[in-house]
UniProtKB/TrEMBL annotation:
GO molecular function: DNA binding; DNA-binding transcription factor activity
Protein's recorded name: DNA-binding transcriptional regulator YhcF, GntR family
Domain of life, source organism: Bacteria
Source organism: Mucilaginibacter gossypii
PANTHER family: GNTR-FAMILY TRANSCRIPTIONAL REGULATOR (PTHR38445:SF10), HTH-TYPE TRANSCRIPTIONAL REPRESSOR YTRA (PTHR38445)
Database matches in Gene3D superfamilies: 3.40.50.2300, Winged helix-like DNA-binding domain superfamily/Winged helix DNA-binding domain
Length: 404
């Protein structure tokens, strides 16, 4: 690093951009009079630093400054930053803040001002170019090519977590809406307080709120939070919430009915076993309606049954069928069965919740009972595009494989 030892002039050309790096530089320069520098074996204090700002074209400064006001990156959001950047530009075009033929800041300027990578900035511009909003001229950069290419919908999408099957829902929504929608995606990790914070801090300019409400604890009054949203914009996913008022849309599972009917369909295979055990952790976001359906089936068809809270210490006997909900429990269960002389699909049965590609392969195939998550996403996209406020049950399937 160069440290001046006498009078020194620092030339700063162009608009001053305040970033973490530039703040550090100014701190260092302010502190320089107190620093010392070894020269010829002696310590010499710098005397003076002169700052000289060279003038630049005011239109360039105005353009960059004005553009900065339109861009918003939400670091709580799970939406990729390039999509957030692209959505901010689309919103500015839609509101008339950016006009046709207006030149946008360079990739380097975006990289510097928003602390995002060059790849992220370039990906955002290429995305906007692919939908016809931007044009580009080699050596000149990007500009607004078409002010009619904006999105019709702006969606606030919030999930409790992003598992393999939830990703199917997300992908189907994104694919179904295509370039017609800007989607802000959030994950609250089953935490009610975080969910409430995200919902209360939203910008209120969304055309739709798509909410998947599952909580470990504290969600008893979630309806109070959701009731603050306009019902014509509301879509509830996966689970209906008691207490929500008004005419809103929903794409949901009927948990009690679904497990009952799936087990009923598997009755011919279940007849060779005598005890059904459902692995249902005490601390879980899975709804209690699943247990109601399970109990109803076992009582109606005279099976011995048990709710297992911890599979690690549960005895495994010939004639048992295990129904698991959590992927971690499935791993423990299979490891424990394989450590015995019991044969899966003959002596012991295994049924797993939620279909995934891997379950087609494990142990020559695991029997699954599962919602059609891709269909859930497709139905949600159609509701958004059609403006429907209907409530639709998602199909639920039994897929028989070697584990039963």
């Amino acid at each position: 690093m160069f440290i001046p030892t006498a009078s020194c002039t620092i030339l700063i050309e162009g608009p001053l951009i305040v970033t973490n790096s530039s703040l550090y530089l100014f701190w260092l320069l302010i502190k320089l009079p107190r620093l010392t520098h070894a020269k010829g074996g002696s310590l010499i204090k710098p005397n003076l630093i002169n700052f000289k700002f060279l003038p630049v074209a005011s239109s360039i400064v105005m353009k960059s400054s004005r553009f900065l006001e339109y861009i918003y990156i939400d670091y709580y959001s799970s939406t990729p930053k390039y999509i957030q950047l692209a959505n901010s530009i689309i919103k500015s075009v839609r509101e008339g803040k950016l006009i046709i033929n207006e030149t946008l800041p360079s990739i380097n300027e975006l990289n510097c001002n928003f602390e995002i990578s060059r790849d992220t900035a370039e990906k955002a511009y290429k995305h906007l170019k692919s939908i016809g909003l931007l044009g580009s001229v080699p050596g000149k950069g990007y500009y607004i090519k078409n002010t009619e290419a904006g999105q019709q919908f702006k969606v606030f999408l919030i999930f409790n977590k992003l598992s393999t099957h939830k990703k199917l829902v997300y992908d189907a929504i994104v694919d179904g809406l295509g370039h017609e929608a800007a989607i802000d995606f959030y994950i609250y990790n089953n935490d009610f307080e975080f969910f409430k914070k995200l919902l209360q801090n939203n910008s209120n300019d969304y055309t739709h709120y798509v909410i998947l409400p599952h909580f470990m604890h504290g969600g008893e009054n979630v309806h109070d939070i959701i009731n603050t949203l306009p019902k014509e914009k509301l879509i509830i996913l996966d689970k209906l919430v008691p207490g929500i008022k008004g005419d809103f849309a929903a794409v949901y599972e009927n948990f009690e009915k679904d497990i009952f009917q799936a087990l009923e369909e598997a009755l011919p295979q279940l007849r060779k076993y005598h005890t059904l055990k459902i692995i249902f952790p005490e601390y879980t976001y899975f709804p209690g309606e699943i247990l109601k359906g399970f109990f109803s089936f076992c009582i109606q068809y005279a099976f011995t049954y048990k709710v297992v809270h911890d599979i690690q210490g549960e005895p495994i006997h010939e004639g048992d069928v295990f129904i698991n909900l959590m992927e971690n429990d499935l791993v423990v269960l299979i490891e424990r069965i394989l450590a015995t002389e019991l044969k899966i699909g003959k002596d012991v049965g295994v049924i797993s919740y939620n279909e995934t590609p891997l379950k087609k392969i494990i142990l020559n195939g695991l029997t699954t009972i599962s919602t059609d998550f891709e269909q859930m996403g497709k139905m949600t996209a159609e509701i958004i595009k059609n403006g429907s406020t209907g409530r639709y049950e998602v199909p639920f399937y039994l897929t028989l494989r070697a584990s039963l």
